[in-house]
Amino acid sequence: MGFVDLLASFVKSPASIYSSIREKTQRLLAAHEAGLQGRTTPAPGGLPAERSFSRAPTSLLYRSVAPRRHGPYSSFRTSNLAPPTVNRALEAEATRAAILLELRKANDIEMDAAARKAEAEAKRAAALHKLLRDEQLAADRAAKPAVSAAAQQSLPRRRLDMEMAAQQPTDSPEPLSSAQGRSWAALGTPSPGPAAAASPAMMRARAALIAEGEHAERKRLLQERQQSQKEFQQAKARLVGVNKRPQDLSLRAERAMAAGAPSPVEQSERSLTAARAQEMLLLEEEKRRLEASRLRYAAAVPLPPDAGSPVPFGELRLPEVSWAAPSPAKAKREEQRSAQPEEDGVVVLSSDDEEEEEQAEEEEEEQVVTEEEESLSAALDEARIKDEGQEVQTRRRLTRKQQELVARALADGDPREILAYHKSSNIEMSRGHMACLKGLNWLNDEVMNIYMGMLLDRDAERREKGLGPRCHFFNSFFLNKLYKDTHTYNYKAVRRWTLPKKLKLQNQQSESILDVERVIVPVHLGNHWTCALIDLVAKEIVYYDSLGGREDKILRALRSYIADEYRDKRDAEVDTSEWPIRYPADVPLQQNGCDCGVFALQFAEHLSRGVDLSFSQLDMPYFRTKIAADIMAGHVD
Amino acid sequence: MDQSAETKPKVEGGSVINLVVKDQAGTEVHFKVKSHTKFQKIMDAYAGKRSVDVSAIRFLYDGSRLDGSSTPGDQGMEDNDVIDCVLEQIGGH
């Protein structure tokens, strides 16, 4: 029975393989003893069944023919020298190595879903492989119980060190370990190294496992293995982060631009696209890290239900927030937090929904009693947000009614189903379009424009209440028509957009946009949303970009637009060419590659109330749900 | 390039007007339609002609969104009015 067959049968019937392994272990023991007594190597013909299974002769062979100081794929070169049984094992390894190599390449380009899935499978296979090896090890250990005392301490945890150890030529007297180290290196995966391979704790555990065939234990060990692999990947990601920090670099570049060194638009666009691929990769790693730590908490500390946690949002998961490369200190803090009971976060709210929010809080406290089934992961999410929120002292929460709306909006279903309709902007919001508010998805024009329409409605309401400033909101295509489509300024294309009857249709209360104080223009830059403000009172153009970019040409077009609008609608000559174009220094910046649309909408929303932009990346998960709730409710609270 | 292209949704009486659908590159497609023809028909015809998914394009008339259920008559459209066809937009960073 060859190694590959054994592996295959192991996958098929784990129960039966235990008995067969037990048998084989005993036979192997006998064979080995016989070998020790009789010859230096077991007779090739003597024990045909066990030969392929026995590691001792194989590894000796490895040792004699394999060059020691070659790279990870050294074992390939020996394959045609090795006997057929070894060949098969090597082939299996080579195939796996090739697969892993391919996967890594794929990872480097883009971490697409298919590759991730395939990698998961490869990992599972690797985990099985490892288990098998350990069982063999245990068998061999039964024959040769001497284990170096130095090895006692190490556990296959510190993956990074291990990999390095595996890359070094090993001088362990134990042939098994070195062979294994090499084969792990050949796989290109982290090797437990000779010391870890001999870890008595693991081996004892596995020996007991073989003896008793305990299913649960096996599963646990498998999980442990997968977890360690995850940790290794994260550690690697962290290393990459330290070395490169593409995200930070791109942000820094953008900030530098904001600080006064505008670089060509094309260049920044290109760097952004390049940064995105890297960023998404980091994001994936970060997500996996958070998932892993959540699993660990879930296993270790059953948290008390959080008094402030929201009702489950159906399919909605609050988006993970990606920060700079995670530090060990942070991980430690997270662990501490999970052990501590939570204290209530500081609530900073805008004045006009404070009352409602307070009511909602009371409501929610009552709910908690009835909602013991509150999922643990939701509580953990809340805990994380709370902790991070404390750092900047902001924390916002949806009312229960809003949460229900969100659950409905973001639930799975037919993407063509119309969830909401906004009359004055004449936009039907389908489930498919609404889904862009989930997680870390990019926002689409439908969400931007329905929200602009709703802000116009709210502006009308605010004017009735005597609240200012008076605002007008264009849709996201306005700038396309005015300037971007042709890259030439074209007032004629949008001249009719602001005719009194058109404004009325959009629920603009003023007869002309020149009567308002602020004109807010969402800006779409290929794959980025920003927000421009024409301040007709201060007579300036202000640009709000969550990446800190600059768009002089577009803003100059807006400046000219106002002059033309005066000329066309008022028959007046107003020189706007001296109006300053301003890039505020304190614009909240996004820390990831996906929330710009949410930022742009919040710039618009805050500017139209005339309040400070007192939010940050931390608030984006909240705002995503809030926007979904607003769209469902048909108006912005 | 499609300047002269004309597509005629079926006409049976009623006042007929000429509408121009203009995309973001400035390409125009002309339609002769009755004032009570639903825009859905025009949209589908346009999407078919340009081989685009109708869900990926938006039709704007003087900046306001057209939906499939309304008609040129509802919008008070006149002969040779221009409908802007714009592509969906998406952005993350």
Topology:
The complex is a heterodimer of chains A (637) and B (93).
Chain A lengths: L2 H10 L1 H24 L10 H4 L3 H11 L8 H4 L6 H26 L3 H31 L15 H9 L7 H13 L5 H5 L2 H13 L2 H29 L2 H14 L5 H36 L27 H12 L14 H17 L5 H17 L7 H11 L7 E5 L4 E4 H4 L8 E2 H20 L6 E3 L4 H7 L15 H6 L12 E7 L4 E7 L4 E5 L7 H19 L10 E2 L13 H14 L10 H14 L4
Chain B lengths: L5 E2 L8 E7 L5 E7 L4 H12 L6 E5 L2 E2 L15 E7 L2 E2 L2
Parallel strand pairs in B: 1-3, 2-6
Antiparallel strand pairs in B: 2-3, 4-5, 4-6
Q: Can you describe what's shown?
A:
The complex is a heterodimer of chains A (637) and B (93). Chain A has 25 helices and eight strands. Chain A is mainly alpha-helical and 637 residues long. With 93 residues, chain B is mostly beta strands. Chain B has a single domain (14-87), classed as Phosphatidylinositol 3-kinase Catalytic Subunit, Chain A, domain 1 (Ubiquitin-like (UB roll), Roll), CATH 3.10.20. In chain B, 13% of the residues lie in helices and 34% in strands. Chain B has one helix and seven strands, in the order βββαββββ. Chain B has a six-stranded mixed sheet, with helices on one face. In chain B, a hairpin with a 2-residue loop joins strand 4 and strand 5. The A-B interface holds A 272, 276, 279, 425-428, 436, 440-446, 448-449, 474-478, 480-481, 485-486, 493-494, 496-499, 502, 505-506, 524-529, 547, 590, 592-597 and B 24-26, 58, 60, 62-67, 84, 86, 88-93.
